[in-house]
Amino acid sequence: MTSLTAYTSYADAQAHWSSARLWELFDGDRERLNIAHECIDRHVEGDKTAVIVVRADGSDEILSYRQIAEDSSRLAHWLAAKGVVAGDRVAIKLEPSRAFYAAVFGAIKAGAIAVPLFTLFGPDGVRLRVEDCKPRLLIEDAGFLKELSAYPATFEPNTRADDLAIFQYTSGTTRELPEAVKHTHRAIVTLMVAALYGTGLRPGDRFLCPTSPAWGHGLWHGTLAPLALGLTIGAYAGKFDAARLLQALEEHRFTNISAAATHYRMMRVSGAAPKHRYFLEKTSFTGEPIDSETASFCEATFGRPMCSMYGTTEIGVILVSYPGAADFVVKPGSLGKPIPGGRVEVQDAEGKPCPPGVTGEMKVWRRGGWIATKDLGRIDQDGYFFHGGRADDVIISAGWTMSAIEIEDAVLKHPDVREVGAIGVPDALRGQVVKAFVVADRTGDEPFAKEIQDLVRQRLSQHEYPRLVEFVAELPKTPAGKVNRKMLRTKE
What we know:
This protein is of the alpha/beta class. It has helices spanning 10-16, 19-22, 35-39, 65-81, 98-109, 123-133, 187-197, 216-228, 242-251, 261-270, 292-302, 404-411, 446-459, 485-491; strands at 49-55, 61-64, 89-92, 113-116, 137-139, 164-169, 180-184, 206-208, 232-237, 256-260, 282-286, 306-312, 316-320, 337-338, 344-347, 360-366, 369-379, 385-390, 394-397, 400-403, 417-427, 431-440, 468-471. Helix 10 links the parallel strand 10 and strand 11.
């Protein structure tokens, strides 16, 4: 039977896709499955390159499937020697590197649960997540690599498909504390829907995703999915530099890229794009809508339409633009159409489908019921979906999803701050930026605003802070006495 990877057209995707056929792409089955085996161990023949770590300073790192397989096997034995057993959480706070891939796949191979953490988290950002997942071990430097040579280079995984494998934290939630999305080993199978039709992965692709693997897009779509297909992938380490990324696209001859819309905006404003030659055949973006100027720049520079991929960490990818499908027309500004076999609707307040052109809440059909995405949207006469803004208080900036509550909590740690309300406001480069409205016990000025910004950056993350601060006498409140962010957004 022809593999799903052999089909590239939109028509074939609708005609030949089935959930059962996804399992044909893997060694494991519905009973026994291990993500580390599927992504690494089964692709070691021929010493093929697995990962190219594009470094900001130019000192790129090339890792083969064999090297990662041996490192991760040794790491699995190393964990066992430290008393880590199946089901224990292993938190990993590392940049993409030999150590990162050894730790993630080693933990998964051993039957433990890998918990990637963003390297720019401050103490509060780490503490909240560590207190939530309670890891047996936190790995945050590469020193363990020196110890691995004492352990065997092979390890036989023994996990069930329904065993937990990864805890994935969103970059922000509407809850006061972050909540881990808990993935089993079988998640690698359902992930392939997004891989095949969201990023358009096919055998032979050289795939680059500059998003940190601490986040869902960078880990699942940028790392696990392409490795499961035996592809060579690119990851980015260090402070993001758009000119460096453009250079890497040429140097390593990447043919497929998926990134946040902000990455592409930064490429555009860098002015470095004309300096290089590109080999891209497929381009996709996620995390937020892309502005028309950047989309036009990308199409002119790379010669490919910009394909949207829409979803969330909790529900997965549900709307795609089928990169590489010659018979799929990519509509500028749209989120695309549902994945094969998927049901997505825009519904009104009563749960009824909205007619074309009418804005409502986007919902996806799962397990016999409609699940809210918490995003607004609309469809057109041709069945394409368009984003209509957030339906809650989550803020998306430069592809990062941030929690207004978490940011407000950090601002309130400043001794002179009495009240604060945080919202997202439009920004030409990042899509949105965080703006904080602050009620304080001292006069508001630029030095005071910088104190607040620095505090939040230190406590949460380098990207998760209010770029704009406005000092106000009072904040609008709901009848329950809560800060009325909707009124703040309306004011802006």
